[in-house]
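Input for the complex:
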Amino acid sequence: MSGREDFAVNLASRHARGDRWRLMFMLSTLLAIVFLGALILTIVDDAFGYVVMVDEVDQRSLVPDGERLESLDAEALRAVIDERLSPRRYRAIERERPFDERTAADLYDIVLYEIVKPRVAETYTLFESLFARRSIVEETTLAHPDGELVFRSWVNMRFLSTSQTARPLTTGVLTAVKGSILTISITILFSFPVGIAAAIWLEEYAGDNRLNRFIQVNIYNLAGVPSIIYGMLGLAIFVRGLERFTSGSAFGASTSGEVANGRTILSAGLTLAILILPVIIINAQEAIRAIPGSLRQSSLAVGATKWQTIWHQVLPASFDRILTGAVLAVSRAIGETAPLVVVGASTFLTQDPTGVFSKFTTLPIQIYQWTSRPQAEFRHIAAAAIVVLLALMLSLNAFAIFTRNRLRRQKRFG
Amino acid sequence: MRLFKKSAPEANRLEATIGSGDSGQALEAKSLSIFYGEFEAVKRLSIGFERKKVTALIGPSGCGKSTALRAFNRMNELIRGVRTEGEVSFRGVNVYDPDVDAVQVRRWIGMVFQKPNPFSKSIYENIAWGARINGYQGDFDELVENSLKQVALWDEVKDKLKESAYALSGGQQQRLCIARAVALKPEILLMDEPTSALDPISTAKIESLLDDLKKRYTIIIVTHNMQQAGRVSDKTGFMLLGELVEYSDTKELFFNPKDPRTENYISGRFG
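Predicted:
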């Protein structure tokens, strides 16, 4: 019997099977990209588009003929305010900050939003604005003859730089952005050192005994616990148990009248920190485990102690991976909503947080709150806030990738 | 006299005691047994190594020669489940005494591994780091140059000391690893099949180095290459199944083996 007869000639079918699998892999990737694209498109679709603005008071009735409200100087604006603003609002605004100290831009805002009171009568999505412009114009002239059709980017400088207010045209995302950044800073400050230290202990020091295996298994389990349960934990430990510390009263911090109890940025940050701690530990362990034993041996062979080996050899060689894992975990924490609701995020907060003992709201919570409002404008505002959240997350990731690449270069040549 | 007390080791105190130990042997194993769990990989090995000589340990795979070598500077302790019995005497002290610090042992008994494993640092730092963490007081530039010259690598790398050690070829990396070990001015160099991952030219370079290095250091080399053992060593020990079968001058062992098992092995009948 010759070798030829022993082996069936099935090369064609082997290749065909491989090609089918290849196609499936490609389709899966494609599907993921399609979903991602759809996500971005829906957000962008809502974040930009035509709006029909209707002024409650005609701007032309406020200014002399031939002039525009935008071009008035402070004095003229003051005159308009003195004449048209209701006494009650006048006193309220004066109490916030005297009119005499306000700039022209400030006064213009007051005239616009307190007297002219523009209102969004109709909103359109980006695609409607791009592809059905003519029918939008027709519709507007029919339904809102005195309305003005303008293209509005719901993400704009005003939106980015003002605190939250109740009205869609004047509201801003700054309160939530500050809350998110402060919260995530606490999370990073706590979870990075603790997580990496725990990973070093588990990988380099802990022996292979029953207790340590039990700990290891439970860290894996903890990584899978639903986030809302961490919210309950945070509520019990940080908000209630450690209220004296998380409210700042133990450190003599006064929260300037607002009653935050333990429902502060500190509590929120720590809750998110324990939420991502298992993930950071596991990722850091993987990174440390990936360092070949030969590196440790060569270090010990030149008379390094165990600690010198870890500090000078193992950690520098694995730090880029540790960092990548940790930042991915933080990206998850930035988007977390459920545990913060339980911990006690404020749903409507007009005062920016001033420190870690302030009441807080974060971007996801703010988005959730805006999407549940009935007015159509808030749908677009929520979309704008989502753009901000994504930008924040992407810049964090970009920073991490940049740092990692720098560390890699140092690692190679340091 | 406790040479390696954990609390003691100022450099000058150690230097002062060099050579004041016993004569003759640089290192001596006394009925050294090493277990991997229940398996006895090295069986009551007793062997002495002469100063400033190259001693080769040969034997088929799994005979325990590498395990024995790694026991001499307590590298075996890093492997889980390894148990060591018996004594390894260095300068009159058993390195396995409870109050001897393994870190000090490894500082005086250097090691070169099978695969080149430089640190992920620059060429310069690869050599300077070990000296620095051991509190070297002298001039580092001089130390680096001197160490690289000892392994005949200086002329090849003197213009790129700041570059990564990984930019070097495998053979250069291995010579760098030897330089790294000699930078600590050890007494003994343990080499665990140092050329098995290298091409013939790199191997020849390292072999020719050993002749120079043995003027300063006692070298113990494990190899599965009998020709290499014949070329480089003054004395050779043949190990089989964890036992030292025969140990004598290299020429004697290769041309006039006393034990039939040695003769079988060197004539290629097994292994």
